[in-house]
Amino acid sequence: MCDDLTELDNAAYLNRRQFTALGAGAAALTVMPGCMAQTATGTAAMPTKSRAVTITTPDGTCDAVLIAPATGKHPAVIMWPDIAGLRDAYKTMGTRLAGEGYAVLVVNQYYRGSPAPILDSLTAWRTPEGQAKLKPLIAGITPDGTVRDAKAFVAFLDQQPEVDTAKKIGSCGYCMGGPFTVRTAFANPDRVGAAASFHGGGLVSDAPDSPHRLLAATKASYLFAIAKNDDERAPTDKDELRKAADAAKRPAEIEVYPAQHGWCTIDAPIYDQVQADKAWGRMLALYKSSL
Which InterPro entries does the entry link to (predicted)? Predict the structure, then answer.
């Protein structure tokens, strides 16, 4: 999770790193939904279209963005943003994924308390104003609520003209959204075929419904991309994930990346384009084989 200790780790790392063009990689990826993006290999992506949507859940009405190739039906993917929520950075990331041939639903996990955007960047989360806005909303998210949301999101996607319902659904999540990908697979075992967690927090705990304990009740394949400093703080988590996946007989790629927590989010100060592209490529490989 993106907490005070993680932020101190990242600040110290940035102070050590001589990186004169920190924002250049993120800027290069910035495209607006509906425009041409680029694939991970730099080739032209499919043209995309975007529309704002609302999804009725048992807990209210969730605002989200659906981004898909401009024509045809495609496998669907649910994208769970990091702690700062649905904002332009995640619309850009969703557009990039849609350009690879997926119908991407980028959701506002905080819909119970506020429509998106709540913050305009990840950096804003560390301000007193950002903390004051987000902490009550974070407290409103529960594991059971996330499972209810995931069921509603899948049901919604299966009714959309952009979605190929003959294909399995994927999920990806960042930071706090990492464990939500497992809960998505748990909520919809017959529909969700792949889940990718990037620097996810709270994947392993003593709770009976800890995400790693849910793998056996899913039918998905997994990618767990772990940050170096997260692994340093919880070095046995990767081993528990490995044991849980093996016991559940679920395919799972589990790797610690030489990058800091938050490295995959394009507006994060710690964004690492080289390692983010590597993780992105592994997600695409997962989706190609599992959806």
Answer: AB_hydrolase_fold, Dienelactn_hydro, Dienelactone_hydrolase-like, TAT_signal
CA pair distance 137, 118, nearest whole angstrom: 10
Reply yes or no: is the peptide bond before residue 117 cis, omega within 30 of 0: yes
Could you tell me if residue 196 is inside a domain?
yes
Helix/strand/coil percent split, the chain, to 5: 40, 20, 40
Longest dimension (CA), the chain: 50
Contact between residue 1 and residue 211 where contact means Cβ atoms under 8 Å apart: no
Whichever domain contains 241, its CATH number is 3.40.50.1820
Output the six-digit token pair for 7: 């932020």
What does each C-alpha distance from 272 to 34, 172, 195, 239, 260 come to in angstroms?
Answer: 25, 18, 22, 25, 8
Contacts of 239 by beta carbon, 8 Å cutoff, 6+ apart = none
Q: Does residue 51 come out as left (phi exceeding 0), alpha (psi in the -120 to 50 range) or beta?
A: beta
**Length of the chain, in residues:** 291
What are the tens digits of pLDDT across the range 73-86? 999 999 999 999 99
Q: Residue 241 domain-assigned?
A: yes
Question: Whole domain around residue 129: which residue ranges?
Answer: 4-17+33-202+211-290
**Direct distance between the N- and C-terminal alpha carbons of the chain, in angstroms, rounded to an integer:** 28
Q: Residue type for 32, please?
A: M
27 belongs to a structural domain:
no
Q: What is the pLDDT of residues 84-94, one digit of tens each?
A: 999 999 999 99
Is residue 120 situated within a structural domain? yes
Torsion of CA 47, 49, 40, 45, to 10 degrees: -10
- pTM more than 0.85: yes
CB 270 within 8 A of CB 9: no
138 C-beta neighbours (distance < 10 Å), count: 16
Structural domains in the chain (count): 1
